[in-house]
Amino acid sequence: MHVDGTEKKWVILSFMMAFAMMGILAAYAINKNIHPPSNVETIDSTTLHLSEEFNEDNLGIEKENDGSYRVTMVAARYGFFPHDLKVPVGQPIKFRIASADVLHGVHTANTNMNTMVVPGYISEVNTTFPKVGRFPMYCNEYCGLGHDYMWSRLNVVSMEDFEKSLKEAD
Amino acid sequence: MQKTLNNQLKTIIALFGVLALVVVGISSANAEPSSNVAWTSETRNLLKNADIANGEKIANKCGSCHGEDGTDATPIEEEDTPFLAGQIAHATYKQIIDYQDKKRDDKMMLKKVKSLSKQDVADVSAFYATQALPMPSVDAAKVTPEAIRLVTRGDGDRFLPPCAGCHGLNGEGSIVDVPALAGQNTSYFITTMTAYKDEDRENDIYSRMRFIASILTEKEIEELADYYASTGTGTELLMVESDEEEVSPVEPEEPKAPAEPSS
């Protein structure tokens, strides 16, 4: 089969560019320690609201024995539950998120909080929010007609305000 | 003497222990789901394989309140019994099971449905789903632009998603258990939304409707009731948004006058 010289050069160049980009991505991932979520934990999405951990009354933020915080959240068409979440600034927080129906994503604008929530699995994200502020939380995986309106609010507050809100809640 | 005192002390400590366990038990019992209905394949199959004829027989007993075809015959202003005709089968199924489980508090409904088996509930729910949605009972002219905006766009400032996102633009509802609202009588709509707002009704999983109703004002609830009562069988997409910011009802096109023959 005859391949024109110019065409051959472009084919080689295209392959080289693709391999170069793959190399850059691999080097970046290794250097910055970026990896797919390592937590593989299954849960039945259809009975999520009947489970102990993802029961409606158990959603929200809890302090762990080691002083860190754990947030339990549910993503379901079309919202994140709880709708309004208050977390302390500068504290290690573990998010545990499950979907009650279809594939969702949780993206918190202007933070590094971003994960896919696959039905049947519990997504886990460990993060610390360095700045006080109010951040919108969006679904970034198309999940149905109401996807555009699937949002929630994350309030990162000072430790003092956080403790105060906990006391008020009690 | 000392031994007796020790025994009494032990008894008191044991009683406190039992009391503590009871308190812990009660507090963990509070973490109850809002509904026991889960859309497992077993539950979905009950509805998929429902016996419509048996459902119709059961529905005959519901006719005195919900009407023979699932639409209440009494004037809507005086009655807040919901229309069931054309309702999504899964939605009707969930509500009846919630009555049985006392997740939705209504003594009269509990009395009516407690003897039904799960298959009976599926059958009657499937029967109502085969009926046509009710006819509109409110004139479309009564619908306010604010209601149209809430249905089609929601209110981002108040974190209110549009009703149409789940219930559909025509209020047709969707599977699995998002109920149809089209043609629903206004008094039932207002009663239900107010119950969610006041947290008198809590069988919506993960507080979906309690959250939305808590943001809506009473006036908005009434306007939305009119919107949905103006939809139903025989109505097409009732409202559409124009290109401009303003939202307006669809005006029927004026028939064009035939062109004057040129002389």
What can you see in these coordinates?
- The complex is a heterodimer of chains A (170) and B (263).
- Chain A is an alpha+beta fold.
- Chain A has two domains: 35 residues; 129 residues, Immunoglobulin-like (Sandwich), CATH 2.60.40.
- In chain A, 22% of the residues lie in helices and 34% in strands.
- Chain A contains two helices and ten strands; from the N terminus they run αββββββββββα.
- In chain A, strands 1, 2, 3, 5 and 8 form a five-stranded mixed sheet that branches. Chain A has a five-stranded mixed sheet with strand order 4-10-9-6-7.
- In chain A, a hairpin with a 5-residue loop joins β1 and β2.
- The mean pLDDT of chain A is 91.
- With 263 residues, chain B is mainly alpha-helical.
- Chain B folds into two domains: 118 residues, Cytochrome c-like domain (Cytochrome Bc1 Complex, Chain D, domain 2), CATH 1.10.760; 89 residues, Cytochrome c-like domain (Cytochrome Bc1 Complex, Chain D, domain 2).
- In chain B, 48% of the residues lie in helices and 2% in strands.
- Chain B has a two-stranded antiparallel sheet with strand order 1-2.
- The C terminus of chain B is likely disordered.
Offer a quick outline of the entry:
Chain A has helices at residues 5-31, 159-169; strands at 60-63, 69-76, 79-81, 84-88, 92-99, 104-108, 114-117, 122-128, 133-138, 151-157.
Write the layout of secondary structure elements.
The complex is a heterodimer of chains A (170) and B (263).
Chain A (H helix, E strand, L loop, with lengths): L4 H27 L28 E4 L5 E8 L2 E3 L2 E5 L3 E8 L4 E5 L5 E4 L4 E7 L4 E6 L12 E7 L1 H11 L1
Chain B lengths: L1 H28 L11 H8 L3 H9 L2 H4 L22 H12 L6 H7 L4 H13 L14 H8 L11 H4 L18 H12 L10 H8 L2 H12 L9 E3 L5 E3 L14
Antiparallel strand pairs in B: 1-2
